[in-house]
Amino acid sequence: MPIKLITQANLTDCGLACVAMVTGKSLDTVLRVAIKECGYPKDGPHTTTDDNLFKLLDHFGVKHGKKQKVKTVEALPPLAIMETRKMPSTGNSHLVVFERTAEGDEHALDPGWWLKQQVRSDWNRIKLDTFIPIHLNEPTTKAAKKKTDTNAETQPAIEQKTSPQPKKKSSTSASKKPKATKPKTTAHAEEPDGNGAEPNDGTATNPAADNTALEPAGSVQEWNDVA
């Protein structure tokens, strides 16, 4: 399912906007949790640290990996929260969401409200720094595999329980035949040994067959120059 772009409300809440995108929550909902669980000031600034980013993802039950350096865009996971190059004046970074669609389209969802194009693939200008892999589909995939394995194990067991039933009927029908021939063999003392051995052999064989967030002191123009 494609990620919905969410635009940040101020210069410092790009991280909160990225959390809102990957969790499917509203920016207001994520901000309320950040204020309550992470001690964010209500009126800002809302700069997101790595620790707070992990806490927010954990709060919403989103699986994630460790922070890593971006090597190439092709080596990125299908979904990640990415950090762009830090601004020299503030030391802060701008956070965006990287998404690779099922069709193979790779782009960044940039929450920056100052950008004309927020769905970006101008990687040379974005200058990616680090990323945190997001594993939205992991729990579902694992659960589906367990269900498939369980079904694969139970079906042979059911077949084994049901298949012997007709075999038992055939063995019992074979055992009834010698009973019917017993009266005939009493008239000849030599023949019962040969005729009686055949049904006994048959009975024995049948069972075996079974872009950068700035502090308020930063400027949008400076971010435009870098991001």
In brief:
With 227 residues, this protein is α+β, with helices and mostly antiparallel strands. Helix content is 48%, strand content 13%. It has eight helices and seven strands.
Task: Please explain how this structure is put together.
This protein is an alpha+beta fold and 227 residues long. The chain has helices at residues 14-23, 27-38, 50-59, 123-126, 138-162, 164-185, 191-209, 220-226, and strands at 63-64, 68-69, 79-84, 95-100, 106-109, 119-120, 128-135. Strands 1, 2, 3, 4, 5, 6 and 7 form a 7-stranded antiparallel sheet that branches. A hairpin with a 5-residue loop joins strand 4 and strand 5 (106-109). Helix 1 (14-23) packs across helix 2 and helix 6 (164-185) runs antiparallel to helix 7 (191-209). The longest helix is centred in the middle third of the chain and has 25 residues, at 138-162. 24% of the residues are buried.
> SSE order, as H and E?
HHHEEEEEEHEHHHH
Q: What is the percentage of strand-forming residues?
A: 5-15%
Computed CA radius of gyration, to the nearest angstrom = 35 Å
**Alpha-beta classification:** alpha+beta
**How many strands?**
7
Q: Give me the number of helical elements.
A: 8
| Mean of all residue-level pLDDT scores | 73
| Tertiary shape | globular
The low-confidence runs, each spanning 5 or more residues with pLDDT under 50, are 139-163, 168-219
Task: Report how far apart the termini are.
Answer: 27 Å
Major β-sheet profile: 7 strands, antiparallel
The residue fraction in helices comes out at 40-55%
